[in-house]
Amino acid sequence: MAVFHSKSEAETEAIGADFARDLPGGTVVAMYGDLGAGKTAFVRGMARGMGLDCRVSSPTFTIVNEYLGKRELIHFDMYRLSSADELFDIGWEDYLARGAVCAVEWSENVSDAFFGDEINVRIEKTGENERTITIGEEERC
Protein backbone atom coordinates (compact mmCIF):
# COMPACT_ATOMS: atom_id res chain seq x y z
CA MET A 1 0.00 0.00 0.00
CA ALA A 2 1.27 3.49 -0.86
CA VAL A 3 -0.08 6.77 0.49
CA PHE A 4 0.39 10.10 -1.26
CA HIS A 5 -0.61 13.62 -0.27
CA SER A 6 -1.69 16.04 -2.97
CA LYS A 7 -2.09 19.79 -2.51
CA SER A 8 -3.59 20.50 -5.95
CA GLU A 9 -5.33 19.03 -8.96
CA ALA A 10 -2.01 19.15 -10.83
CA GLU A 11 -0.33 17.10 -8.08
CA THR A 12 -3.18 14.56 -8.20
CA GLU A 13 -2.65 14.24 -11.96
CA ALA A 14 1.10 13.81 -11.45
CA ILE A 15 0.50 11.00 -8.94
CA GLY A 16 -1.83 9.33 -11.46
CA ALA A 17 0.79 9.69 -14.22
CA ASP A 18 3.53 8.11 -12.09
CA PHE A 19 1.18 5.31 -11.04
CA ALA A 20 0.12 4.41 -14.60
CA ARG A 21 3.46 4.77 -16.39
CA ASP A 22 4.29 1.05 -16.19
CA LEU A 23 0.84 -0.48 -15.58
CA PRO A 24 0.46 -3.65 -17.62
CA GLY A 25 -2.44 -4.00 -20.04
CA GLY A 26 -5.42 -5.74 -18.51
CA THR A 27 -5.05 -3.98 -15.15
CA VAL A 28 -8.30 -2.93 -13.50
CA VAL A 29 -8.08 0.14 -11.27
CA ALA A 30 -11.03 0.32 -8.85
CA MET A 31 -11.42 3.92 -7.70
CA TYR A 32 -13.19 5.17 -4.59
CA GLY A 33 -13.86 8.72 -3.42
CA ASP A 34 -16.62 11.23 -2.85
CA LEU A 35 -17.98 13.50 -5.54
CA GLY A 36 -15.28 16.03 -6.41
CA ALA A 37 -12.51 14.06 -4.73
CA GLY A 38 -10.33 14.05 -7.84
CA LYS A 39 -10.93 10.66 -9.45
CA THR A 40 -11.14 12.10 -12.96
CA ALA A 41 -8.01 14.22 -12.37
CA PHE A 42 -6.20 11.04 -11.34
CA VAL A 43 -7.38 9.31 -14.55
CA ARG A 44 -6.25 12.34 -16.58
CA GLY A 45 -2.82 11.77 -15.07
CA MET A 46 -3.03 8.05 -15.81
CA ALA A 47 -3.62 8.81 -19.49
CA ARG A 48 -0.63 11.14 -19.59
CA GLY A 49 1.55 8.57 -17.81
CA MET A 50 0.51 5.96 -20.35
CA GLY A 51 1.62 8.25 -23.18
CA LEU A 52 -1.89 9.09 -24.36
CA ASP A 53 -2.44 12.56 -25.76
CA CYS A 54 -6.19 12.95 -25.41
CA ARG A 55 -8.79 15.01 -23.59
CA VAL A 56 -9.92 13.07 -20.53
CA SER A 57 -13.34 13.89 -19.12
CA SER A 58 -15.71 12.20 -16.73
CA PRO A 59 -17.93 9.62 -18.43
CA THR A 60 -20.78 10.27 -15.97
CA PHE A 61 -23.43 10.40 -18.68
CA THR A 62 -21.84 8.08 -21.24
CA ILE A 63 -20.74 5.48 -18.63
CA VAL A 64 -17.51 4.74 -20.56
CA ASN A 65 -14.86 6.71 -22.46
CA GLU A 66 -12.09 5.06 -24.46
CA TYR A 67 -8.69 6.66 -24.90
CA LEU A 68 -6.61 5.09 -27.64
CA GLY A 69 -2.98 5.43 -28.66
CA LYS A 70 0.10 3.29 -28.23
CA ARG A 71 -1.69 1.97 -25.18
CA GLU A 72 -5.39 1.78 -24.37
CA LEU A 73 -7.20 3.23 -21.35
CA ILE A 74 -10.89 2.62 -20.78
CA HIS A 75 -12.49 4.98 -18.25
CA PHE A 76 -15.75 3.94 -16.56
CA ASP A 77 -18.00 5.99 -14.30
CA MET A 78 -20.37 3.74 -12.36
CA TYR A 79 -22.14 6.58 -10.53
CA ARG A 80 -25.40 5.99 -12.41
CA LEU A 81 -25.31 2.19 -12.18
CA SER A 82 -26.93 0.37 -9.30
CA SER A 83 -25.46 -3.10 -9.73
CA ALA A 84 -22.76 -5.13 -11.41
CA ASP A 85 -25.44 -6.69 -13.61
CA GLU A 86 -25.81 -3.34 -15.39
CA LEU A 87 -22.04 -3.25 -15.95
CA PHE A 88 -22.11 -6.73 -17.47
CA ASP A 89 -25.03 -5.58 -19.67
CA ILE A 90 -22.82 -2.90 -21.27
CA GLY A 91 -20.10 -5.45 -22.09
CA TRP A 92 -17.75 -5.40 -19.07
CA GLU A 93 -16.28 -8.80 -19.97
CA ASP A 94 -15.63 -7.65 -23.55
CA TYR A 95 -13.76 -4.57 -22.27
CA LEU A 96 -11.67 -6.76 -19.96
CA ALA A 97 -10.84 -9.14 -22.81
CA ARG A 98 -9.33 -6.28 -24.84
CA GLY A 99 -6.37 -6.12 -22.47
CA ALA A 100 -6.67 -2.37 -21.87
CA VAL A 101 -6.10 -0.65 -18.56
CA CYS A 102 -9.56 -0.09 -17.08
CA ALA A 103 -10.09 2.77 -14.59
CA VAL A 104 -13.42 2.47 -12.78
CA GLU A 105 -14.84 5.42 -10.84
CA TRP A 106 -17.52 4.73 -8.20
CA SER A 107 -16.39 1.11 -7.94
CA GLU A 108 -18.46 0.57 -4.81
CA ASN A 109 -21.56 0.49 -7.04
CA VAL A 110 -20.29 -2.56 -8.95
CA SER A 111 -17.89 -4.24 -6.51
CA ASP A 112 -19.16 -7.74 -7.27
CA ALA A 113 -17.95 -7.32 -10.90
CA PHE A 114 -14.33 -7.47 -9.73
CA PHE A 115 -12.33 -10.66 -9.45
CA GLY A 116 -10.04 -9.66 -6.58
CA ASP A 117 -7.00 -8.77 -8.67
CA GLU A 118 -7.86 -5.09 -9.18
CA ILE A 119 -5.74 -2.26 -7.78
CA ASN A 120 -7.76 -0.11 -5.39
CA VAL A 121 -7.27 3.66 -5.38
CA ARG A 122 -8.98 5.69 -2.67
CA ILE A 123 -8.97 9.49 -2.90
CA GLU A 124 -10.05 11.38 0.20
CA LYS A 125 -10.58 15.12 0.56
CA THR A 126 -8.53 16.41 3.47
CA GLY A 127 -8.99 20.13 2.72
CA GLU A 128 -10.26 22.42 0.01
CA ASN A 129 -7.49 21.40 -2.40
CA GLU A 130 -5.72 18.71 -0.39
CA ARG A 131 -6.19 15.01 -0.99
CA THR A 132 -4.87 11.77 0.47
CA ILE A 133 -4.48 9.13 -2.23
CA THR A 134 -4.09 5.53 -1.11
CA ILE A 135 -3.06 3.03 -3.75
CA GLY A 136 -3.21 -0.71 -3.27
CA GLU A 137 -5.34 -1.05 -0.20
CA GLU A 138 -6.95 -4.46 -0.06
CA GLU A 139 -10.17 -3.54 1.68
CA ARG A 140 -13.16 -2.58 -0.45
CA CYS A 141 -15.93 -0.18 0.50
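The above is record 1. Record 2 follows with the same two-line structure.
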Amino acid sequence: MNIRIKLLFSVLIVLSFSMLTNAQTLSKNYKTYIDKYCQLAIKQQAEHGIPASIILAQGLLESSAGESWLAINSNNHFGIKCAEWQGDKVYKDDDTVNECFRKYDNVIDSYEDHSLFIKNRRWYGSLFELAKTDYIGWAHGLKKAGYATDPTYAYKLISIIENYNLHQYDLIQKKADIITSKNKITATPEIKSMGTITAFTNHKVQKNNKVRYVIAAINDTYGSIADEFNIDENRLRDFNDAVPFATLTAGSKVYLQTKKRMASRKFPMHEVKEGESMHSISQDYGILLESLYNLNEMPYTQGAKVAQILKLRR
Protein backbone atom coordinates (compact mmCIF):
# COMPACT_ATOMS: atom_id res chain seq x y z
CA MET A 1 0.00 0.00 0.00
CA ASN A 2 1.59 3.31 -1.07
CA ILE A 3 1.79 6.41 1.14
CA ARG A 4 -1.09 8.22 -0.61
CA ILE A 5 -3.47 5.27 -0.13
CA LYS A 6 -2.40 4.88 3.51
CA LEU A 7 -3.08 8.57 4.13
CA LEU A 8 -6.51 8.33 2.49
CA PHE A 9 -7.33 5.24 4.55
CA SER A 10 -6.37 7.04 7.79
CA VAL A 11 -8.50 10.05 6.88
CA LEU A 12 -11.50 7.81 6.11
CA ILE A 13 -11.14 6.10 9.48
CA VAL A 14 -11.07 9.41 11.35
CA LEU A 15 -14.07 10.73 9.39
CA SER A 16 -16.08 7.57 9.96
CA PHE A 17 -15.56 7.65 13.71
CA SER A 18 -16.14 11.39 13.77
CA MET A 19 -19.56 10.79 12.19
CA LEU A 20 -20.21 7.99 14.66
CA THR A 21 -19.48 10.10 17.70
CA ASN A 22 -21.31 13.11 16.25
CA ALA A 23 -24.38 10.90 16.37
CA GLN A 24 -23.50 9.94 19.92
CA THR A 25 -23.46 13.60 21.00
CA LEU A 26 -27.23 13.40 20.73
CA SER A 27 -27.16 10.58 23.26
CA LYS A 28 -28.45 11.53 26.68
CA ASN A 29 -26.56 8.53 28.11
CA TYR A 30 -23.19 9.89 26.98
CA LYS A 31 -23.89 13.34 28.39
CA THR A 32 -25.19 11.90 31.66
CA TYR A 33 -22.09 9.71 32.01
CA ILE A 34 -19.76 12.67 31.48
CA ASP A 35 -21.65 14.82 33.99
CA LYS A 36 -21.62 11.99 36.52
CA TYR A 37 -17.96 10.97 36.30
CA CYS A 38 -15.98 13.99 35.04
CA GLN A 39 -14.97 15.02 38.57
CA LEU A 40 -13.77 11.49 39.28
CA ALA A 41 -11.66 11.55 36.11
CA ILE A 42 -10.21 14.94 37.10
CA LYS A 43 -9.29 13.50 40.49
CA GLN A 44 -7.52 10.56 38.83
CA GLN A 45 -5.54 12.97 36.63
CA ALA A 46 -4.47 14.96 39.67
CA GLU A 47 -3.36 11.86 41.59
CA HIS A 48 -1.93 9.65 38.84
CA GLY A 49 -1.10 11.87 35.86
CA ILE A 50 -3.41 10.33 33.26
CA PRO A 51 -5.37 12.94 31.25
CA ALA A 52 -8.97 13.20 32.41
CA SER A 53 -10.12 13.26 28.78
CA ILE A 54 -8.48 9.90 28.11
CA ILE A 55 -9.98 8.38 31.25
CA LEU A 56 -13.48 9.60 30.38
CA ALA A 57 -13.21 8.53 26.73
CA GLN A 58 -12.04 5.05 27.74
CA GLY A 59 -14.83 4.80 30.31
CA LEU A 60 -17.44 5.85 27.74
CA LEU A 61 -16.11 3.46 25.11
CA GLU A 62 -15.39 0.44 27.29
CA SER A 63 -18.61 0.62 29.34
CA SER A 64 -20.99 1.89 26.63
CA ALA A 65 -21.56 4.96 28.82
CA GLY A 66 -22.12 2.84 31.90
CA GLU A 67 -24.67 0.52 30.26
CA SER A 68 -22.50 -2.50 29.41
CA TRP A 69 -23.03 -5.84 31.13
CA LEU A 70 -19.70 -5.47 32.96
CA ALA A 71 -20.48 -1.94 34.17
CA ILE A 72 -23.91 -2.93 35.46
CA ASN A 73 -22.95 -6.29 37.00
CA SER A 74 -19.44 -5.61 38.30
CA ASN A 75 -18.90 -1.81 38.27
CA ASN A 76 -16.09 -2.53 35.78
CA HIS A 77 -16.03 0.50 33.46
CA PHE A 78 -12.75 -0.29 31.67
CA GLY A 79 -13.05 -3.96 30.78
CA ILE A 80 -10.02 -4.94 32.88
CA LYS A 81 -9.52 -8.70 33.12
CA CYS A 82 -8.45 -10.80 36.09
CA ALA A 83 -4.67 -11.04 35.57
CA GLU A 84 -2.86 -10.36 38.88
CA TRP A 85 -6.25 -9.79 40.56
CA GLN A 86 -7.11 -11.13 44.01
CA GLY A 87 -10.55 -9.55 44.37
CA ASP A 88 -14.05 -10.58 43.30
CA LYS A 89 -14.55 -11.81 39.75
CA VAL A 90 -17.24 -12.18 37.10
CA TYR A 91 -17.16 -14.26 33.92
CA LYS A 92 -18.25 -13.25 30.44
CA ASP A 93 -17.54 -14.22 26.82
CA ASP A 94 -15.10 -11.85 25.17
CA ASP A 95 -12.14 -12.74 22.91
CA THR A 96 -12.67 -16.30 24.16
CA VAL A 97 -15.49 -18.05 26.00
CA ASN A 98 -16.15 -17.38 29.70
CA GLU A 99 -13.30 -14.93 30.35
CA CYS A 100 -12.58 -13.59 33.84
CA PHE A 101 -13.10 -9.91 34.61
CA ARG A 102 -12.48 -7.87 37.75
CA LYS A 103 -15.46 -6.97 39.92
CA TYR A 104 -15.52 -3.81 42.08
CA ASP A 105 -17.64 -2.68 45.01
CA ASN A 106 -18.23 0.70 43.35
CA VAL A 107 -17.32 2.77 40.28
CA ILE A 108 -14.72 4.81 42.19
CA ASP A 109 -12.72 1.61 42.75
CA SER A 110 -12.93 0.83 39.03
CA TYR A 111 -11.52 4.25 38.10
CA GLU A 112 -8.74 3.95 40.69
CA ASP A 113 -7.77 0.45 39.55
CA HIS A 114 -7.72 1.59 35.92
CA SER A 115 -5.30 4.39 36.78
CA LEU A 116 -3.02 2.05 38.73
CA PHE A 117 -3.23 -0.56 35.95
CA ILE A 118 -1.70 1.95 33.52
CA LYS A 119 0.62 3.68 35.98
CA ASN A 120 2.23 0.51 37.35
CA ARG A 121 3.06 -1.19 34.04
CA ARG A 122 6.40 -0.25 32.51
CA TRP A 123 5.19 -0.52 28.90
CA TYR A 124 2.95 2.49 29.51
CA GLY A 125 5.79 4.45 31.11
CA SER A 126 6.60 6.59 28.08
CA LEU A 127 3.05 7.97 28.08
CA PHE A 128 3.73 9.85 31.29
CA GLU A 129 6.42 11.86 29.50
CA LEU A 130 3.70 13.38 27.31
CA ALA A 131 1.87 16.58 28.24
CA LYS A 132 -1.41 16.03 30.08
CA THR A 133 -3.09 17.97 27.27
CA ASP A 134 -1.69 15.70 24.54
CA TYR A 135 -4.71 13.40 24.33
CA ILE A 136 -3.80 12.44 20.74
CA GLY A 137 -0.39 11.19 21.85
CA TRP A 138 -1.94 9.33 24.77
CA ALA A 139 -4.59 7.69 22.57
CA HIS A 140 -2.04 6.40 20.05
CA GLY A 141 0.38 5.50 22.84
CA LEU A 142 -2.19 3.32 24.59
CA LYS A 143 -2.96 1.47 21.37
CA LYS A 144 0.74 1.03 20.55
CA ALA A 145 1.46 -0.30 24.05
CA GLY A 146 -1.20 -2.96 23.61
CA TYR A 147 -4.09 -1.64 25.73
CA ALA A 148 -6.63 -2.75 23.07
CA THR A 149 -6.59 -5.10 20.08
CA ASP A 150 -8.99 -2.96 18.04
CA PRO A 151 -6.85 -1.35 15.27
CA THR A 152 -9.03 1.78 15.34
CA TYR A 153 -8.99 2.15 19.14
CA ALA A 154 -6.94 5.37 19.17
CA TYR A 155 -9.17 7.01 16.56
CA LYS A 156 -12.25 6.11 18.56
CA LEU A 157 -10.84 7.76 21.70
CA ILE A 158 -9.80 10.89 19.81
CA SER A 159 -13.20 11.22 18.14
CA ILE A 160 -15.05 10.87 21.44
CA ILE A 161 -12.78 13.42 23.13
CA GLU A 162 -13.16 15.99 20.36
CA ASN A 163 -16.88 15.53 19.79
CA TYR A 164 -17.66 15.75 23.50
CA ASN A 165 -15.08 18.46 24.24
CA LEU A 166 -13.53 16.25 26.93
CA HIS A 167 -10.11 17.92 26.58
CA GLN A 168 -11.49 20.84 28.62
CA TYR A 169 -11.12 18.65 31.72
CA ASP A 170 -7.36 18.19 31.12
CA LEU A 171 -6.81 21.87 31.94
CA ILE A 172 -8.86 21.97 35.12
CA GLN A 173 -6.14 20.87 37.53
CA LYS A 174 -3.84 23.69 36.46
CA LYS A 175 -6.66 26.23 36.78
CA ALA A 176 -7.66 24.86 40.16
CA ASP A 177 -4.09 25.10 41.47
CA ILE A 178 -4.05 28.79 40.53
CA ILE A 179 -7.44 29.41 42.11
CA THR A 180 -6.53 27.58 45.31
CA SER A 181 -3.23 29.47 45.50
CA LYS A 182 -5.05 32.80 45.25
CA ASN A 183 -7.51 31.75 47.94
CA LYS A 184 -4.68 30.83 50.29
CA ILE A 185 -3.43 34.40 50.20
CA THR A 186 -6.45 35.52 52.20
CA ALA A 187 -7.53 32.37 54.01
CA THR A 188 -6.80 28.69 54.47
CA PRO A 189 -9.44 26.67 52.60
CA GLU A 190 -11.69 24.43 54.62
CA ILE A 191 -11.48 20.82 53.48
CA LYS A 192 -14.52 18.59 53.74
CA SER A 193 -14.99 14.99 52.71
CA MET A 194 -16.94 13.83 49.65
CA GLY A 195 -16.34 10.11 50.09
CA THR A 196 -12.91 9.48 48.64
CA ILE A 197 -12.91 12.86 46.88
CA THR A 198 -11.74 16.03 48.61
CA ALA A 199 -13.44 19.36 47.94
CA PHE A 200 -12.05 22.82 48.67
CA THR A 201 -14.37 25.59 49.81
CA ASN A 202 -14.02 29.12 51.16
CA HIS A 203 -14.63 31.09 47.99
CA LYS A 204 -13.93 34.76 47.45
CA VAL A 205 -17.09 36.64 46.44
CA GLN A 206 -16.65 38.94 43.44
CA LYS A 207 -18.97 40.99 41.22
CA ASN A 208 -19.63 40.95 37.49
CA ASN A 209 -22.28 43.21 35.94
CA LYS A 210 -23.15 44.12 39.56
CA VAL A 211 -24.01 40.47 40.28
CA ARG A 212 -22.23 38.55 43.04
CA TYR A 213 -20.39 35.38 41.98
CA VAL A 214 -17.61 32.98 42.97
CA ILE A 215 -15.15 30.95 40.91
CA ALA A 216 -15.63 27.18 41.05
CA ALA A 217 -12.61 25.17 42.19
CA ILE A 218 -11.85 21.52 41.52
CA ASN A 219 -14.49 19.12 42.90
CA ASP A 220 -16.95 21.94 43.57
CA THR A 221 -20.59 21.14 42.93
CA TYR A 222 -23.68 23.31 42.90
CA GLY A 223 -24.62 21.54 46.12
CA SER A 224 -21.36 22.31 47.94
CA ILE A 225 -21.44 25.98 46.94
CA ALA A 226 -25.13 26.21 47.84
CA ASP A 227 -24.31 24.80 51.30
CA GLU A 228 -21.41 27.20 51.78
CA PHE A 229 -23.57 30.26 51.07
CA ASN A 230 -26.78 28.88 52.60
CA ILE A 231 -28.66 28.95 49.28
CA ASP A 232 -31.09 26.31 48.06
CA GLU A 233 -29.30 24.25 45.37
CA ASN A 234 -32.20 24.49 42.89
CA ARG A 235 -32.25 28.24 43.34
CA LEU A 236 -28.49 28.43 42.75
CA ARG A 237 -28.92 26.44 39.55
CA ASP A 238 -31.65 28.87 38.46
CA PHE A 239 -29.29 31.80 39.06
CA ASN A 240 -26.85 30.14 36.65
CA ASP A 241 -29.34 28.82 34.07
CA ALA A 242 -28.07 25.32 34.90
CA VAL A 243 -30.10 22.23 34.03
CA PRO A 244 -30.76 19.73 36.86
CA PHE A 245 -27.87 17.39 36.04
CA ALA A 246 -25.29 19.97 34.97
CA THR A 247 -21.92 19.81 36.71
CA LEU A 248 -19.36 22.50 37.39
CA THR A 249 -16.03 23.05 35.68
CA ALA A 250 -13.22 24.53 37.73
CA GLY A 251 -12.64 28.16 36.77
CA SER A 252 -16.26 28.84 35.83
CA LYS A 253 -18.37 31.63 37.34
CA VAL A 254 -21.14 30.63 39.75
CA TYR A 255 -23.60 33.44 40.41
CA LEU A 256 -25.08 33.82 43.87
CA GLN A 257 -28.02 35.94 42.75
CA THR A 258 -30.13 36.52 39.65
CA LYS A 259 -28.18 37.77 36.64
CA LYS A 260 -29.13 40.99 34.83
CA ARG A 261 -31.25 41.38 31.70
CA MET A 262 -28.47 43.25 29.87
CA ALA A 263 -24.69 43.55 30.04
CA SER A 264 -23.00 46.65 31.39
CA ARG A 265 -22.84 49.68 29.07
CA LYS A 266 -19.22 49.00 28.10
CA PHE A 267 -20.21 45.67 26.51
CA PRO A 268 -22.94 46.37 23.91
CA MET A 269 -21.93 43.55 21.53
CA HIS A 270 -20.04 40.25 21.50
CA GLU A 271 -18.51 38.30 18.61
CA VAL A 272 -18.86 34.57 19.17
CA LYS A 273 -15.56 32.70 19.33
CA GLU A 274 -14.74 29.03 18.84
CA GLY A 275 -15.91 26.92 21.78
CA GLU A 276 -18.39 29.47 23.13
CA SER A 277 -22.09 28.76 23.64
CA MET A 278 -25.09 30.92 24.45
CA HIS A 279 -24.85 29.69 28.03
CA SER A 280 -21.12 30.40 28.41
CA ILE A 281 -21.61 33.90 26.97
CA SER A 282 -24.48 34.59 29.36
CA GLN A 283 -22.22 33.52 32.24
CA ASP A 284 -19.28 35.62 31.01
CA TYR A 285 -21.34 38.82 30.95
CA GLY A 286 -23.72 38.11 33.83
CA ILE A 287 -26.83 38.10 31.62
CA LEU A 288 -29.87 35.87 31.95
CA LEU A 289 -29.73 33.22 29.24
CA GLU A 290 -33.36 33.89 28.32
CA SER A 291 -32.61 37.61 27.95
CA LEU A 292 -29.63 36.89 25.70
CA TYR A 293 -31.87 34.90 23.37
CA ASN A 294 -34.58 37.58 23.45
CA LEU A 295 -32.15 40.42 22.79
CA ASN A 296 -31.05 38.65 19.62
CA GLU A 297 -34.52 37.40 18.63
CA MET A 298 -33.21 33.84 18.49
CA PRO A 299 -35.23 30.65 19.09
CA TYR A 300 -34.15 28.82 22.26
CA THR A 301 -33.23 25.75 20.22
CA GLN A 302 -30.58 27.66 18.25
CA GLY A 303 -26.96 27.79 19.38
CA ALA A 304 -24.35 30.50 18.97
CA LYS A 305 -22.38 30.41 15.72
CA VAL A 306 -18.70 31.32 15.39
CA ALA A 307 -18.25 34.96 14.23
CA GLN A 308 -21.91 35.75 15.00
CA ILE A 309 -22.40 39.23 16.49
CA LEU A 310 -24.67 39.10 19.53
CA LYS A 311 -26.42 42.05 21.12
CA LEU A 312 -25.80 42.31 24.85
CA ARG A 313 -27.91 45.44 25.37
CA ARG A 314 -30.99 47.07 23.84
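The chain has a mean pLDDT of 81.
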